[in-house]
Amino acid sequence: MWSAHFDDEMDELKMQSKERKRKNDDRNGAKIENTLNVIVENMAHFINQRHLQQIQSIKQLDICFALLLLY
């Protein structure tokens, strides 16, 4: 009888441990996902800024070319 009670307690502790591990894994997975989202957002912002700089450069070249044509 004592052995059965001990086995039940051990099973309960194992289940609690598995549940804690699953919750921890979920939190870690969420942290990784959030980190990756931030990286992707920063990359998109950098690419967008770079693209805007290229457009600005093209506009400046167009203005220079137009001024040369007027000259």
TrEMBL record:
Residues 12-29 have a biased composition (Basic and acidic residues). Residues 1-29 are annotated as: Disordered. It comes from the Eukaryota. This is Uncharacterized protein.
